[in-house]
Amino acid sequence: MLRIENLHAGYGPSRVLFGMDLCVEAGSVVSLIGRNGMGKTTTVMTIMGLIRPTQGRVYIGGADMTGRAPHRIAQAGMGLVPEGRRVFPSLSVRENLLATASAKRSHKWTLDKVYDLFPRLRERERQSARTLSGGEQQMLALGRALMTNPAMLILDEASEGLAPVIRTAIWDCLVRLKAEGETILVIDKNLKEMARVVDRHLVIEKGRLVWTGSPAQLAAAPEISHRYLGV
Ligand SMILES: Nc1ncnc2c1ncn2[C@@H]1O[C@H](COP(=O)(O)OP(=O)(O)OP(=O)(O)O)[C@@H](O)[C@H]1O
């Protein structure tokens, strides 16, 4: 579904990615993990067309999408739940969800289906997004990404800064999405929760892929967690 090869990118003179590789097969859930500042968000921004790589390629569904504009990447099926949520604060919950709705690729995700996944959003349908709690805003950001009927979802730190009970609700939701066959790339720090849903971890260190394996393989290799994750 998504493949990046030998990606080099950064911010002006400051280089962050040094030959990053990554592959997410259709129907799988893959994590991108690594210490702070190693280039996870930069990888996502380059995939989404928000940063232009200086070298390397991004393939989506087999098509070379390197350097394409963000709206073209979204049309190609990438649904991003960005770090920091960024819902439209003055719009209602319902308006936020309808703002991104697209039935171009599939009709799978509708308002009703998102409300079934997150009943709290149905209850707060007419409330403006700015009045939602952090956890509810995160649910809204995820629901909004689903309303684009993406071929693949990317979640950047979706459970960051949320109360434990809300965090669990977000992970439960990812388990459900996986069971429905969604393809997901998830960036997070919570290895324990991720082990419930992730097929494969990808570990990034200084802008390149250094290790890949299942949650069980990672649990059996404490030196990897210690060296690359600082845990
Ligand atoms: N807009 C920017 N301009 C310049 N440098 C940036 C910018 N955004 C990020 N960086 C730098 O790029 C490097 C990689 O940052 P990135 O956000 O990709 O890391 P990350 O792995 O996602 O980390 P975190 O877990 O802290 O979010 C860091 O050194 C960061 O300071």
TrEMBL record:
Keyword Membrane belongs to the record: yes
This protein's UniProt keywords: Amino-acid transport, ATP-binding, Cell membrane, Membrane, Nucleotide-binding, Transport
InterPro entries, sorted: AAA+_ATPase, ABC_transporter-like_ATP-bd, ABC_transporter-like_CS, BCAA_Transport_ATP-bd_LivF, P-loop_NTPase
Pfam families, per database record: ABC_tran (PF00005)
Signal peptide segment: none
One Gene Ontology term of the molecular function aspect: ATP binding
Residue ranges of every copy of the ABC transporter domain listed in the record: 2-231
SUPFAM superfamilies the record matches: P-loop containing nucleoside triphosphate hydrolases
The keyword Transport is annotated on this UniProt entry: yes
GO biological process, one term: L-amino acid transport
Family recorded in the similarity comment: Belongs to the ABC transporter superfamily.
Protein name in UniProt: ABC transporter ATP-binding protein
Higher taxonomy: Bacteria, Pseudomonadati, Pseudomonadota, Betaproteobacteria, Burkholderiales
